[in-house]
Amino acid sequence: MTYKPYIMKRITRTIVLLLIALLAVPVGLAGGDDDDKTTVNKHEIRRLHPERERLKALKKLQEQRSRKAEPKADPWDTTDDPWGTVDVPPALPDSGAVEGHRLTSPPAMTDAPQRLVWRDEPVTATIDQLMPYCVVDDDGDCRSKYVTIDEPGNEVYFAFSLIDSLPGPLRLCVRYSGEMPMDFDQLMFTVDGFDYTFFPADVQRGNSDGGTYWAISDDEINPAYKDLVYALAHAHWGMIKMQGSGGGNIVKILTDGQRQDFANTLALFLLMGGLI
What is the 3-state secondary structure (H, E, C) of 258-269? Predict the structure, then answer.
């Protein structure tokens, strides 16, 4: 009988220690080492901000495309290299950017790159200021004076016809001349890292006596392409990829002059009362 208090005390102490050990197990699992904490935090960030992963992928893809489209001695690159291999996650449904529509709500990250979309904004220049940069030919066709159409060459530009001093539809014109045939049926413009696709309605093709192949498209721009028009006129950087139905493609960097010509021609078109 003299040992019962001692035994009970031992049993009580053992039970208390077991309870303390059991309570400590979840704490140890949740704590982990620093690497485990970092892993958890990364997954949590990706869950809370999935758009950041998309933006990083877009940036990497743009860098790849820039390297693949570096200007050469002949600015028209005729290689068939892949045009980017980065897997870009799709945009979130609530990001506000919807293909073919204007932004209806601001993006979640205001400092992130944004796809250019059409915006109704006033033109600050005047017709008198813009006309010196354009030319109107005998047929009443208005375009940049720096565009050459009287001889084979490579051009991409806006144009419109003047009928009784009023502009007709705005047009997107592409001219190709080179040593390889080009039966392009799709134009892919990359402007500041975002892609815009244009489908020419009718492409004229042929070859000269000297063996040079040529292709010309001249299409009226309908409202479905308003975002492309705005992007080309406001681009900081851009390139055009002519894609052929047979698998061939040609890539060309848009020059500073071409980007400025897009802006000038569009501004003149709007000032004269043109509508898209």
Answer: HHHHHHHHHHHH
Question: pLDDT digits over 197-238, tens only?
Answer: 999 998 998 887 777 888 999 999 999 999 999 999 999 999
**What is the spatial distance between Cα 183 and Cα 203, in angstroms, rounded to a whole number?**
8
Helix (H) or strand (E) holding 221: none
Nearest-angstrom CA–CA distance, 101 and 118: 9
Cβ(77)–Cβ(250) below 8 Å: yes
Q: pLDDT per residue over 148-195, tens digit each?
A: 888 778 899 999 999 888 999 999 999 998 888 888 889 999 999 999
Question: Which residues, other chains included, contact 10 with Cβ-Cβ below 8 Å and sequence gap of 6+?
Answer: none
Contact 76, 250 (CB under 8 A): yes
Nearest by Cα to 62 from 42, 33, 80, 84? 84
Question: Which value, in Å, is the radius of gyration of the alpha carbons in the chain?
Answer: 31
pTM of the model: 0.61
